[in-house]
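Weekend entry, working from home. Most of the wet-lab plans are on hold until the incubator is repaired, so I used the time to fold the two sequences that have been sitting in the queue since the last round of cloning. Logging both here for the record. First:
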Amino acid sequence: MTHVEETPLIREKHKAVWWKAAAVATSTVLAGVLGMAAPAAAAPAAQQSSIASPTITFVYGSSATDANLWKGVDLSCTGAFLGGGGYVSGPESQNAGLSQIAPGSRGGAALDDPRSMRVSATAAPDTTPANWTLHAYGICAHGLPGVEYQRDYVSAAGSGRGPLTALASCSPGKSLVGMGGQAFAIPEQVRLSTVAPGNGVVIARVTPQPNPTASWAVQAIAVCANHNAAEIVSGSTGVDNRAVKNATAHCPAGQGPTGAGFGHTWEAGNLVQSMLIPTSDRLVGVTRTDTRPVTGNWGAGVYALCLPT
């Protein structure tokens, strides 16, 4: 496992991979595609026009390349992690998707350490498992005052329950600047299906696989600070039965993404978020079916939190 704070040269090296896998999405608002109510709004913090914009850098790390069903990458930076994402590659990547985007965490533990971040992914069982790799990205901010991590954890006791949703809210007086979410379960039995922002809140949702045999849980992470609230932008796909869909959320001119999220409409548990990549001015996402076909129409999209850079 390796990690390095990304330079412009490293970013250019990976852009070819991002653009090959992602296309510009339609302009339909993601909330409409998902057909779900927006998260309940917390009281908005006062806008603070005199606060300087933070400096944003991207941190990259990668896992081992093997056939294990679970992979995790711990990232480090000298500032504060606000969010991130990653992508999967290799022959088994069709079955693998992101299961944890956890700023302020290391090794799966909620440390509330701004210098730490964990990204993980899981793959569904396969009769002929093959190698795959997780590539992780973290968004690190320097010069952002009062960063805090608010978490909401919701669990299901025993098998047989449906999707779970958690909602994390910023403390009074602080504004939402980043986000994350994570699924807790036996790797092949639960999928992280939504990480989405609202006004001072973040929702995270997990969807179980058919006939789960163990308990599972979900955690939403709201990253908040003494700063103006980040602007929420989204990009979405069409609603049909295609196996792979791409979405891009563009930040306004002069702004860049500080938080990354996604969501989709299908609740059967066989969609994976195989890519969620923040760049200097946009967020790129790819959602796909695993080896089991989706029998109906579905839509997907991405959310970006944007701040002036």
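Second, folded right after the first finished:
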Amino acid sequence: MLWHQSISDLHHQVIESEIWKKQRHKELEEHAVHLVLAQGQCSSNILAQLESEDMSLAQKVRLRLDRYERKQWQIRASVERLAAHLSV
């Protein structure tokens, strides 16, 4: 019975560790996105360094930045349409 309990405890620790890793990875992704957005023109250097260290994280950051940029364009287009409508 003790053997079963130790296996169960080990399994629980592995699951907790995986959850922690995923949460930490998400935090790093958030931080990287904010850092890149704050750096502006230097962002390509940050992304290049991130790619050399963690390609998976770099891909996620690039995807989030692409979504952010598309959202900005959508907002700009909406504002322009609204401005055109109001100026008539």
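Plan for Monday: verify the second prediction. The chain has a mean pLDDT of 81.
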